[in-house]
Write a structure and sequence with these properties.
3-stranded parallel sheet; 3 strands
């Protein structure tokens, strides 16, 4: 299992504009293949994980609202999510 500093997964909206970038980032971070929302089950391995989405207004901005909401809902299944909306 990969160590996460302070048990936090930080996603930066400026750098993750679409699902392809999102899955590539998580695959690299966790050293496993993540290609679909169901693959996010890997997050179950982290007890009391906090997920922060910085610049949430630009997170997955190239995707439809439905896809964006699906990912947020999927992440919410595992642990607490905090989104910051600074421009």
């Amino acid at each position: 299992m990969i160590e996460l500093p302070n048990n936090r997964l930080i996603l930066n909206g400026h750098r993750i504009a679409n699902l392809k970038q999102f899955y590539e980032y998580l695959s690299k971070k966790f050293k496993t293949t993540i290609k679909k929302p169901e693959d996010l089950r890997i997050l179950n391995e982290y007890k009391d994980l906090n997920i922060a989405i910085r610049h949430a207004w630009s997170f997955l901005e190239e995707e439809s609202k439905t896809k964006h909401e699906t990912i947020i809902k999927e992440l919410s299944k595992y642990w607490k999510i905090k989104q910051t909306w600074f421009h």
